[in-house]
């Protein structure tokens, strides 16, 4: 057997997997078939559940090149196995983007593409031309064999390793029919097919769930043991559960199918290699096809890059932002000598030139006689929409401690069942019980210990929480995350549209003349400025468009354009000729703003005065890029020969692209003054372009050639007001010890100002700005540390650093310490990128106190969430969806404030665009989490109580009766478990956090104490009944009650029925144990149904209260006042009234002990002395306390030693790090110091700190 090294597919991707090759082995298949027959099919089920075992049991290892089956394993922490069958397809070649020689020859010989036979026909005619290509399909993606790497890989389209120049030169001519058919072999049908499985297929998949198989095994066992009614009840419950589950799953498939299929198949026009336009179905598109975009718009069926024309697109499906986006054609590097010809095209980098699948092209703009064309780069599940649908169809498992602990606990129950199994076997053998009864009863103990209703009970709390969230306008597509939201201890917020109002108001403008700032002006709409370059820039430098006569676009652009009062017109084709075929968008001022006389004094003004009809045509648009933080347009005044370039964007970026002599010397001071006050500042710049630049050259010029040597024109100051509810919500989160972090694309000082205004940074707190610089000119990367308040105050006579300015080092982790926290880190996206690359060791320290992250690109927001998760924070992310999709998906709890289709990317979506949904979500998450704990504890106690009841009765060769099991499981357990989950969330967030797992001291002590209590009282009842003077082994003639004559007569009528009690159900021990255990279930239900601080008190849960009271009254009634018919059904025997009162006393004492142990001993004494945890449930940095009394100190020491909880080391990395930083004399960094990156030659060297003097 030939072995080979481990291969990896999707290297570096999120779905990276190891791959192994296998061939079928006949002798192994025979052995497996024998094993299946011997185990009654159970081995087949086991192999169905375990793909790895299935492949290894039936196949032998071989090389990937020769394999028939592949075994895949994910490389993430879940290490999930998959298997796939190798299939064969015949093709002329093995690279879809390189045309085979036979096609090249046919095209060069002048064969028409349309006269070519189909590949299938040609294959029949000449099979030798076609070579077999091996592939397999996994999660809707096809992986083909690649000889070059000796492994399987996923065939990319034009979105990888294709240069921008080759897109224009090689791929812009269109495909012949032969090449199209050849590529379709590899890329398949361009369709995001969400197949709705048939009910039969879903049913088989659902029924083969291990849970239902276990139930089937239990039902067969109970029927064998003549527990017909109980078995029938479980079957009915299982059928209802399966039908409900099938309905829900199928409904979700249908919804997703309808969402995807709404516009998946449309007719599209394609430009072929012979310039003919052919109309085909969108399902036939392949990468390289040239799609003609219709002028009236369309829904994009694929990802395509624009090569000519412009499109207005609504990308709300992807970004959550319903603002129309302008897409321009990809610049051709060959026509621009300054451009880099080898730049690789990437849909993410060149997204402003890419039309994404599923987005709505509203309208197109084109030049006279030219079509708007786009080259298809990705199809099917490879597209952006396809990847989104795949993430929904194949979600990553939720890694949460609760679920891991639940499996551990089930394993523990199985071990307990194993002990019971052995005890039953040994006890039965000693009592000479027949073999078939030993088998049935010993297996029965396993079905009792592992409760079949556990999975349904665990999900009940989540389902109820989901309903409550829906009522307050929060929708959830990933219900399992509700529990995780109960653990959130840090929330990241986007700023604009999340913390602040979505819209901006124009506060004023501040123009620059002769490199000096003029006084701020409130209005830009006046006659003196109407023909200035400043207003011309405001009028043209935007991405606004008219849709059905209404001006629409980015809210900032809208406010800016409305402030000058100009008119935007998209010209007709006839008018376009006036502008020499430039892009037909024209802006002009209203007539009342135009001056009556022409001032001829100012030379600059004269450039605008050549035409009586003053209007500006927008020739070329370079849309806003969040990576570049700017946008630019090329415009021309009607009648002018030379064009103008206008640019707007982030002031720091714009100033760096302007001639330094045009930027005022006090630029940084003025900018800082505005940003500190929380204003949004935008800078404008202008440049006259060379006369040699024609409109055609402008269409293909690279933006870098335009965006240089600009003249700085001034600032636009926009006011972004805080939302009314923001400060109150953040205060609630701070009181609950939940950290808040701002992640924004805005200016850093503006962000710091908003953070102070909303209470994220307290007035007395210091803000340390980390300014990281990459390596340059032989110098290593370094970080300069500044204080936000002293950023520009470093003069020659800088004062000595006051010792009081150095922050106090305390951890912001408890309410008492909140006022003492003195420092926060702030940084921009560039610094964050440098720190991630060159200062990996500092990242945890910085995110521990990092509060403001400004100028962050979308991918950097995701990286920040990952960095916070790496130090064990449970991270929430709240954003408006525009640039936050990645972070929303990555966070433990992402909540989108956008109702649009981008909410698909976010686990939670709020109907109201307000951050008040965040505390609501956390409250409901905490309530659901505590409910899960309560239910799990209750179900565990239910199993153990029933297990012990049966074990006690097995010792006398008895058992619980069929209807006794039925009464306990249906009338008590099922009713209680589904009503105890109904407690609503507590009305406010508290500082305490619920534990994250079941395996914790608090929960284990609670469960163990109740187990000991219940078992103790059951044992007392079981032994004590035998000590009674009236006790004797029960027979049908037994008469411990001295029943009346009437009753005796009635009994004698039924004597024949009960004469033969094969299972020995009727006896005094059974009746005693049944009544005590029935009440014990209700006692633990009440004990575990805790309310405050995470849920409303259980008395507010009306259904639970009514259910418990009704069951209590009924059980008490049949115990104290036996009804013969009920006793007969439940197979109870009559015991003296005094013994009934004794049972009642045992139950009352049991209830008192259970309540005292849980609420007094555990909650009030033990946790305060032993498990001294802070209000978050984590290790707390305690403030020194006054000396304890000797007795208290002794008691604390003894208990701490007993439980081994002394000097508990925090589990969370961020808490451990906080401890370390307390004793680090060099942290936080001193103001006006620099930290340099480690020298590459010194691996273990520390960061050198340099003080700047």
Automatic annotation (TrEMBL):
CDD domains named in the record: P-type_ATPase_cation
Protein name as annotated: Polyamine-transporting ATPase 13A3
EC number, as in UniProt: 7.6.2.16
Entry keyword annotation includes ATP-binding: yes
Keywords tagged on the record: ATP-binding, Endosome, Magnesium, Membrane, Metal-binding, Nucleotide-binding, Phosphoprotein, Translocase, Transmembrane, Transmembrane helix
Function comment: ATP-driven pump involved in endocytosis-dependent polyamine transport. Uses ATP as an energy source to transfer polyamine precursor putrescine from the endosomal compartment to the cytosol.
Organism of this sequence: Chrysemys picta bellii (Western painted turtle)
PANTHER family found in the cross-reference section: CATION-TRANSPORTING ATPASE-RELATED (PTHR45630), POLYAMINE-TRANSPORTING ATPASE 13A3 (PTHR45630:SF12)
Cell compartment(s), UniProt: Early endosome membrane; Late endosome membrane; Recycling endosome membrane
Residue ranges annotated for the P-type ATPase A domain, each copy included: 268-392
Biased composition annotated in UniProt, kind: Basic and acidic residues: 1227-1241
